[in-house]
Amino acid sequence: MKKLWYLIVFLMLFWTHPSSIHAESTLQYLIDQAPEHSIVRIPRGVYHESIVLSKPVTLQGNGQVTIQSCRKEPVISIKGQRVSVKNVTVIQCSQEKNAAAIQVSGTHHRIEHVHIRTKGIGIKLEHAYHTVITQSSIKGEKQHNGIDLWKSEQNVIEKVRIEKVRDGIYMEQSDYTTAVQNLIQQSNYGIHIMYSDHITIQKNISKNNVAGAMVMETKGGKIENNEFIFNNRNVHAQGILLFDATETKVVRNNISYNRVGILAESASNNLILSNEVRGNFIGIQFKEANGNIVSNNTFISNVNEAQALSSSDNEVKRNYWDASLKLDADGSGYSDIPYKTNPFFLSLTKDIPEYQLFFHSPGMVVLQKLWKSPDNEAMTDDSPLMTAKIQDESKSSSGVIIVFSLLLFLGSITLWRIGRKKEDA
Amino acid sequence: MRKMYFIFMLCALLIITAACGKKEVSPRAIDEKNDKCAQCNMAVMDNQFATQLILKNGKTFVFDDIGCMYKWKSENKNENIEAEFVRDYHSKEWVESDKATYVYDQSIRTPMAYNVISFQDKKDAEAFISKNSGKILNFDQLQDHKWKMNKEMMEKNMQDGHTDMNGDHSHMDEGNDHSHE
Residues annotated as region Disordered (chain B) (predicted)? Predict the structure, then answer.
């Protein structure tokens, strides 16, 4: 009888475990009861509910807190002003179209240390302004976007790790969006800009996607110090696409090992400066792109350095092309022989892509030499750089050379002294 | 006997020429992994916005938005087009473009924001409009449609001092498909 009594007490204790009770009923209750500008601390546990935050409060997880829902509604809806969500894991398991883990509208919200696993959209911002998403992660199932901005302005996305989603960060009609130090991988497009002006994309890494960045229908943006690398898993893969982009600065990016490094189509008045374009199938490709400046870039080990078609009035100068013939008679640091690309291969393969099989075949090389393209269709660098400008690598390599020379010098002195000692003996 | 042979040959010839005349062009399936829009370079999803254009030489172009197809046509007027297809908004089946009914509304989200969708049946188009909003266009009217993307239109509205599109104007649920979904 005593044993039975213990069992009943044990079962009662089990059933009244705090996380189960709170998970079912009290999270939204806690939020509703909390005064404005207070901190709602959530005890560790798994909470199966979707919640709405519509007043200025901070929702903070203490320990491992998971909020999970398989309903079409967002797991967390953020509305109004100055809502913060910190230290929680959010799981959206709904298969419904457009289901989001977190949906944001309103102004001055903050999402920090939030880790999302979703079958739908990660974070959806609609009419959201001055919101910061930082130090978080999103893992999807490749069907929907990681962070999706629609008619939202002045938002900042920083230090977010996004993987296995459709587009890592997608913005449409969302001016003045800033994306800094994010890592986006194994997705369709890393960063996708549509009809959004004055965006800032800095120090992000976008790798192993179909495209590093699709910069479309935009004006006045800054794309600086990013790494768009290994985006080569698709026949149409590219590091960065500028489509109908104007007055956009693409500066000091590492655009390497993609199928096409930089593709600029119907793009005008953009600045493409000081980028390292390495190991791509095609380094830079222009199609109907006019009035752009391409300068001080380094093109190394690209199978095909540059192609231009129906593109004129572009200022291409002072780039380093490793395949160009170089002669610097006056010691200016710039070659006296202009480097001219030939778009013959691109025009040939445009209509019949299968001809790509003949790339660099002897017959094709002869044809390319015979077929001189008109000047206005070629990309010509009038004064190519004599040496590549890769600061970090040159520094490290010169350092290695100095250390190696010192070691050699010390070694030879030691050997010489040992030899002398033996002679003296 | 010779007459019979002649008649037989004539019939055979007629059948062959008739068969040639009835050469049907059928649309191909969308390959999401490898298809990209011939106009805007974006991946073409196997969804209700995909369109397809087949040239007389057998070459096929796919587009992610009806607007992209019309923009391509305006830039490639010398190409001989054999057939063009759009999708039914609900069933996602291919429909010959001249047999479809179209709906335009600025709040309909399409991949490149040209805001035009297509239906096999006019009734479905009318039902869509009664539930949401929009304007019905038949194939002939679509040829005169001004293909403008919504950002341009938005800027124009702003300049004209019309409504602020960044305000509370919510986009339609049914047209709430993102460019690439």
Answer: 158-181
- Please, which residues 216-235 of chain A have a Cβ atom closer than 8 Å to chain B? 216-217, 234-235
Inter-chain touch B181–A166, beta carbons under 8 Å: yes
pLDDT attached to residue B32: 87
The answer, yes or no, to whether residue B128 has pLDDT greater than 90, is: yes
Q: Look at residue A322 and tell me if it is in a domain.
A: yes
Domain total of chain A? 1
> Over 90: is that where the pLDDT of A181 sits?
yes
Instruction: Answer for the pair A197, A220: CB distance below 8 angstroms, yes or no.
Output: yes
Give me the mean pLDDT over the A187-216 stretch: 96
Which among B59, B151, B180 has the least Cβ separation from residue A188?
A: B180
Which 92-111 residues of chain A touch chain B by CB within 8 A?
A: 97-98
pLDDT at B10 over 70: no
- Closest alpha carbon to B39 in B62, B59, B55: B62
Residue A108 has pLDDT above 90, yes or no: yes
Which residues in chain A are contacts of B180 at CB distance < 8 A?
A: 166-167, 170, 188-189, 192
**Alpha carbon separation from B114 to A293, B49, B91 (Å, rounded):** 30, 11, 21
Tens-digit pLDDT profile for residues A402-425: 776 788 888 888 888 877 776 665
CB contacts under 8 A, B 78-117 vs A, are: 113
Q: Is residue A182 part of a domain?
A: no
Asked, for residue A412, whether it belongs to a domain, the answer is no
**Residue A172 within any structural domain of the chain:** no
Longest CA span, chain B: 85
Q: What is the mean pLDDT of residues A217-237?
A: 92
Confidence check: pLDDT of A394 > 50: no
Q: Is the confidence at residue A144, as pLDDT, over 50?
A: yes
Residue A351 buriedness (CB in 10 A; 0-12 / 13-18 / 19+) = exposed
What is the spatial distance between Cα A337 and Cα A340, in angstroms, rounded to a whole number? 9
Residue B108 exposure: Cα atoms within 13 Å on the Cβ side: 26
pLDDT at A19 over 90: no
Pair A222, A197: CB distance under 8 Å: no
pLDDT of residue A189: 94
Using an 8 Å CB-CB cutoff, list chain B residues near A262.
none
- Please state the ipTM of this predicted complex: 0.70
Domain CATH for A200: 2.160.20
The 3-class SS string of chain B reads: CHHHHHHHHHHHHHHHHHHHHCCCCCCCCCCCCCCECCCCCCECCCCCCCEEEEECCCCEEEECCHHHHHHHHHHCCCCCEEEEEEECCCCCCEEEHHHCEEEECCCCCCCCCCCEEEECCHHHHHHHHHHCCCEEECHHHHHCCCCCCHHHHHHHHHHCCCCCCCCCCCCCCCCCCCCCC
CA-based nearest residue to A21, from A39, A41, A45: A45
Name the more confident of A13 and A30: A30
What is the number of residues in chain A? 425
Q: Domain residues for A271? A: 188-341+378-403
